[in-house]
Amino acid sequence: MSFSTLGLSKPLLRAIADQGYTEPTPVQKQAIPVILSGSDVLAGAQTGTGKTAGFTLPLLQKLSQLPATKGKRKVKALILTPTRELAAQVAESVKVYGKYLPFNSTVIFGGVGINPQIATLRRGVDIVIATPGRLLDLVGQKAINLSSVDTLILDEADRMLDMGFIHDIKKILALLPKKRQNLLFSATFSNEIKKLADGLLHEPKSIEVARRNTSAETIAQKVYPVDKKRKKDLLVKLIKEQKWKQVLVFTRTKHGANKLTEYLQNSMINAAAIHGNKSQGARTKALAQFKDGSVRVLVATDIAARGIDIDQLPHVVNFELPNISEDYVHRIGRTGRAGNEGEAVSLVCIDEKMLLRDIERLIKKDIPKVIVDGFKPDPNIPAEPIQKKRGQRGGSGGSSKPNSRSRSQNARRKNNSNANPHQDHHRKDGSNHKK
Length: 435
Description:
By secondary structure, the chain is α/β, with parallel strands linked by helices. It has helices at residues 10-18, 26-36, 51-64, 84-97, 115-123, 132-140, 157-162, 166-173, 191-200, 231-241, 254-266, 280-292, 325-332, 353-363, 404-416, and strands at residues 41-44, 77-80, 105-108, 127-130, 151-154, 181-186, 205-208, 219-225, 247-250, 271-274, 297-300, 315-318, 342-348.
């Protein structure tokens, strides 16, 4: 099957060809015709399978079929994402695929000045890609009117729920026309997602191109057992001896990301950190340098997990396992994208034994364990509870699967917590909106 059989216009097919794509991915094959039919959609697919183009292409096609309106452009499509990086990534896709179509789009998120965003919106746009908090800030300032939205897309809806955006989403839904098409895309289908879908979608078509919470077969997974205090040394050894040129490393906390980045730099490895306490300018610069190869190692927290889209990223490292098992799937999904091969390495200490067990249960496979000479764990070191920061999701190493109530409560606390004492009421997307 080619893109030309999916009902897309010549300008879209030309833009697709410019990117070198010839065949749609499985999620695109299923989603594009259904979206073009006007049905609501509940779509789930592993990260890296082309979900963004799966909704961007039919959205642009539908907009091109609407009758032209006179006067100032009105917002016809709203795409909500959980993080700034993902918003920027989606906005780039809209721009790339819509390059031969006469539509205006804009991306709005926190962490940058709001006045330029207000100016752009007041000139009129067709498509808005936004994080929830900054969008509500702009609604509060009467800079945007959502009463003309025909299509609502929730991208990475599971992450938005994890980050405590459910109340913001409900506020936004109340501002939209009741008659519209709704598309909910998610890497996983949790019970919370099903509940959200039940209240949002009308007779949706369900699309799921891979078994829930599975890792891509193109990703070679490996666990290196190691004592906690020796993880940094082992990481340096792996990077240098295996000559890794581009490595995305995940830590559990912002402070941990900063410390590890400093250690790598002191070990003569060019590294940069990206997390919620970094300014948007610093995050954008670090990601750009990582993509162009001037930064060898990018150390990130989970907030960046869904917004980093790099073709043929070869290596992902879990310096610390996540407290939520599903986040492991999202993290390693940064590699092995679009059919390319990738490697996912986890450095696991005795404290994380139960977290690893839960991850293996989730993905329904045992991950191979490799002992590196000179780094065999000391069997006499006792396991210690994994310390939770204020508002951090998840358990203490005894279990990484809190019940839905505690998980949502923790997510809300995380969203409302003042992780940085100098940034009162600032949320994950950098906005100032107060609940």
